[in-house]
Amino acid sequence: MTKMSKHQQFLYTLLAVVSVLVLSVEGQGEGHDDLLVSCLDFTPPSLLNVKELEGAWYGASRSPAHKFACVEMKVALTQNDTKVKITTSHAALNSTLINTAKEAVIDVLDLTNPNGFTVLYNLTDEKPTTYKILEIGADKKHALMCGYTNPQIQNASFGLIMTRERIADKKWLEGVKDEASKHFFNFAKDSVVDIQQSDKCASSAEVAVPVLSTILGVVYSFLRFMH
């Protein structure tokens, strides 16, 4: 066997060290991915303080994006706190006129179902969607949710951040998104999109009544002038 020169020994040693470093980095990356929980695999906690869900929530961020703006979700307990009524409203993208409101009622016990809870709104064209509450923030100002319409398609799931404020502080929201991306697949930084919200978001009924009142006032003044 030919004896290796010191130069060859150095090169082989260097190659071995580089190989170990590369494998180490790859291993760390895989380990990090293993920590990210998918919506299908996530098991909701068996205990949930439903009272913390009551009230109005506003869509802050979603992955992937959708075609809605001014997303609002109102949660109310009914029937001796055994049922949850969910009323969701939204406007079309790039609009502040809320023209869609839909309702659904689910059992409180379903909120902690390991397989998630299915929401079927009262609109005929709505597909049933399965949701899971990933967590309610310790600050009680935000909630992380995920969902899917087809459990057979892993990539069809979505992540959703709801906040108590219609327009969340940007720096604070970035922190929420950053933390969520460390634990759940559906909150990757390059795919989470902020939902369009505005202080001008209002239902079509709220907008129509003042306009109608103004028109009637003008007509009334005109008729009085004619007489």
UniProtKB/TrEMBL annotation:
Family annotation (InterPro entries)? Calycin (IPR012674)
Q: Where is the signal peptide?
A: 1-27
Q: Which keywords does the record carry? A: Signal
Per the record, the domain of life is Eukaryota
What's this protein's name?
A: Lipocalin/cytosolic fatty-acid binding domain-containing protein
| Species | Glossina palpalis gambiensis
